[in-house]
Amino acid sequence: HPDDLDTFISEVYAFVRSTETIHEFPVYRAIKADGSLAYTLVRVLAIRDGGNVLTRLIGVTKDITNRYLADEEIRRNVERYEMVTGLTMDVIMEVGLVNDKAYVNKSFSDFYGYNINDYPTAEAAYRAVIHKEDQDRVLGEIMRNRMSTETRAEYKNFRFVRKDGTVVRVNASAIFLRDASGKALRSLAMCAIVTG
To answer: Which pLDDT belongs to residue 116?
Structure first.
């Protein structure tokens, strides 16, 4: 592609002048014979003599357009998700129920003061944020819903304890994603502060 040509040529010359024998170039755009655009991955092997002078260059170009565009779509979706979840003080938590690992949005740290990396399991994170007097009820409800075949659950009026010790009342809604046999694999929950 004309917009990538100068950069690509500069990188080729830099490789030729170097002592490297193998090099993988960044993804470049190329124009195919039919005029369509392709994203390509280029790998080259340099055959050099005893003085490191290039005597032969062997290269392979691979069309990675589908993978590249899929990766770009994923990156854009993650960016959108991060922007949207960053707009709320609500905690959004995704839990891998097979490995008991949790992912949370920024509100978990920004508004509640916790760092998810401080908790090796989702249960440890739950126990840190759910008030001790509410833990048996809420964690019991979570476990019952997880073991059932229901896909949605509500957890009403329980207390979240911020890292600084202040307490807020929250309601939570959860979705359980299940395999064909009904086993819960993941859950996605949102905890919102109760107002009024």
So the answer is: 83
Torsion angles phi and psi, residue 157, rounded to 5: 50, 65
Query: Exposed/middle/buried for 168, CB within 10 Å: 0-12, 13-18, 19+?
Result: middle
Least Cα distance to 93 among 136, 132, 133, 142 occurs for 142
Helix axes 122-129 and 132-147, enclosed angle (nearest 10): 140
| Spatial CA neighbour of 34 closest among 6, 7, 65 | 65
Residues 6+ apart with CB under 8 A from 68: 27, 39
> Please, what's the largest Cα pairwise distance for the chain?
80
Averaged pLDDT score across all residues of the chain: 90
pLDDT tens for residues 11-48? 988 998 898 999 999 899 999 999 999 999 999 999 99
Measured in whole angstroms, how far is the alpha carbon of residue 132 from the centre of its chain? 31
Per-residue confidence at 165, pLDDT binned at 50, 70, 90?
Answer: very high
